[in-house]
Design brief:
By secondary structure, the chain is mainly alpha-helical. It has helices at about 5-35, 50-55, 55-70, 85-110, 110-130, 150-165, 175-205, 205-220, 230-255, 260-270, 275-280, and strands at about 40, 50. The chain starts with a helix and ends with a helix.
Length: about 280
């Protein structure tokens, strides 16, 4: 539990983080508008480009419905009883690892082997080895009444995303590859960024400060694999596309606390419905 001074300090830091996060998103938009890079790729595997305004529609629709349909009851803070200093240490250790991952991947030029190695070490092995987290802590979420209510938001996000990019990749990956990508990306990334990092930041600094900080560091590493226009424009594009999707994932987790739905949505982003239909 935190003292009154710790609570006030957390509130001030939360306000500062919220303002910084909003400024980063607005700055990314300004950079893309000024440089004329308003057409960006849907994903790292997609050569086609689309308007950033269209790519933001699924997240906006999902956010609106996730907000309009409240959970049956607010989710409790799983870290409320933990000493504030421990939460601060855990949160910023995880944030530092996230920044190290984005930086290391950028320096490595998005190489696949480096990507896998850095992800395994920085997003899984070190957090557990340093005893900052436990692998199953997020799985203790109470899912009672937390399946049906978020579904309209999930459906809106999935359907609009599919409408914008309905084509399956060519060639179609085999089932083993899709399963491996699902575990290494959807599962591991959601566990680290949303369930470990965001939940701790939220406990300290509030919902939207935590969502924005998490979304920015989550988007940052994508600049290394979706780029080609220089680090500034690449980072701005990653924030505008991946970061906006992350806002939806973060809010879905914060508001409805159903880890399986969040992982499923992330998995869909990586392997859209058309891929599964074409494969089977």
């Amino acid at each position: 539990m935190g003292s009154l001074s710790e609570v006030n300090s957390g509130s001030r830091i939360g306000t500062a983080l919220l303002a910084a996060g909003v400024a980063i998103y607005l700055g990314a938009l300004v950079i893309l508008l000024v440089t004329g890079h308003t057409e960006v790729r849907f994903s790292a595997d997609d050569a086609e480009t689309q308007s950033i305004w269209l790519l933001g529609l699924p997240a906006v629709a999902g956010l609106a419905l996730a907000w309009l349909i409240p959970p049956r009851e607010p989710a409790p803070d799983p870290f409320a009883a933990i000493d504030t200093r421990i939460r601060v240490r855990q949160s910023w250790t995880l944030a530092a690892l996230a920044v190290a991952f984005a930086t290391g991947l950028h320096l490595a030029g998005g190489d696949n082997l480096w990507f896998l190695g850095l992800k395994a070490v920085l997003l899984l092995l070190l957090p557990v080895a340093l005893r900052v987290v436990t692998w199953r802590e997020w799985a203790r979420a109470d899912l009672s009444g937390r399946w049906v209510r978020p579904l309209p938001a999930v459906a809106a996000f999935v359907l609009i995303t599919y409408a914008l990019d309905p084509a399956a990749p060519d060639p179609i990956p085999d089932p083993v590859t899709i399963a491996a990508v699902f575990v290494l990306n959807a599962v591991l990334e959601e566990v680290f960024y949303r369930f470990w990092l965001q939940t701790r930041l939220e406990s300290l600094y509030g919902r939207w400060a935590a969502i924005l900080v998490t979304s920015v560091v989550f988007a940052a590493w994508h600049a290394a694999i979706q780029g080609g226009n220089g680090p500034v424009v690449d980072l701005a594009a990653a924030v505008a596309v991946i970061g906006v999707k992350s806002l939806f994932l973060g809010y879905l987790w914060s508001r409805h606390r159903n880890p399986w739905l969040v992982i499923a949505v992330h998995g869909f982003i990586n392997a859209p419905l058309a891929m599964w239909v074409a494969m089977f």
